Amino acid sequence: VQLQASGGGLVQTGGSLRLSCAVSEAIVRSQIMGWFRQAPAKEREFVAAVSWNGDSVYTDSVKGRFTIARYIGNRTVSLEMNSLKPEDTAVYYCAVAPKIRLTRLAHDYRFWGQGTQVTVSS
Predict the structure, then answer these.
(1) Are 59 and 112 contacting, i.e. CB atoms less than 8 angstroms apart?
(2) Which long-range CB contacts under 8 A does 61-65 form with residues at least 24 apart?
(3) Cβ(16)–Cβ(81) below 8 Å
(4) Residues 84 and 15: beta-carbon distance below 8 Å
(5) CA 116, 63, 66, 3 torsion: positive or negative?
(6) What pLDDT, on a 0 to 100 scale, did the predictor assign at position 74?
(7) Cα-to-chain-centroid distance, residue 10
(8) pLDDT in tens, 28-84
(9) Segments of the chain assigned E as strands
């Protein structure tokens, strides 16, 4: 399974970006798809995850601003990011976890994309 993330870029504070992640082969419906991010000199942190039936979970700092969704036979996942802040600046990674229940734990995710840079200027 390969994941290809895209959609990153440079945006001003308050702006919006939409990240997409394409999965190379069909994944079973029970797998969880998620987004993580890693800022310079910081640990990788959980951002959001979505289950096969559309249930989702977010880290507190992005609730109400970010929306995760999965599409088309579960082969893509997107992250709509609004009201962006400088502290959202990071490399964003999409990932797939062979789990049924939503999980925030990086070690639960088996497959990872290469990352896409998001930079929010103040």
Answers:
(1) no
(2) 61/87, 62/88
(3) yes
(4) yes
(5) positive
(6) 63
(7) 17
(8) 777 899 999 999 999 999 999 999 888 999 999 999 999 999 986 768 999 999 999
(9) 3-6, 9-12, 17-23, 32-38, 45-50, 56-58, 66-71, 76-81, 90-97, 111-112, 116-121
